[in-house]
Amino acid sequence: xxxxxxxxxxxxxxxxxxxxxxxxxxxxxxxxxxxxxxxxxxxxxxxxxxxxxxxxxxxxxxxxxxxxxxxxxxxxxxxxxxxxxxxxxxxxxxxxxxxxxxxxxxxxxxxxxxxxxxxxxxxxxxxxx
Length: 129
Description:
CATH class of the domain at 28-78: Mainly Alpha
Order of helices and strands: HHHHHEE
Radius of gyration: 25 Å
Structural class: mainly alpha
CATH topology of the domain at 28-78: Histone, subunit A
Subcellular location: Chromosome; Nucleus
CATH architecture of the domain at 28-78: Orthogonal Bundle
Distance between the termini: 82 Å
GO molecular function, one term: protein heterodimerization activity
Main location: nucleus
Largest sheet: 2 strands, antiparallel
Helix content: 40-55%
Strand content: under 5%
Protein name: CENPT protein
Strand order of the largest sheet: 1-2
GO biological process, one term: chromosome segregation
Number of helices: 5
Shape: elongated
């Protein structure tokens, strides 16, 4: 008589995957474009890797500082006032150089329209707060 062959069962994996979760990163092309814009010259590959690491550390420090400011104020969300306070403590925003001047100087017009309130016809202010 023939014996029936039983299919092998594969044990199911429960729980989380074995991969370590990766931190989100800024796209390399964005960092390279920003750096090229301000450097106005070609960037060596070795120099670019250092710039990339420095920008990653800078944004980690920036986010942890903003988190500390909002936590100190008793909030769970970061607000624009926290960012302005951070930039003031870094010396980027002063009484002679307000945040709106920095926005007008360094950001393209599309972003300026989103960040700086502008009065338009019909007694409306864009962007609405």
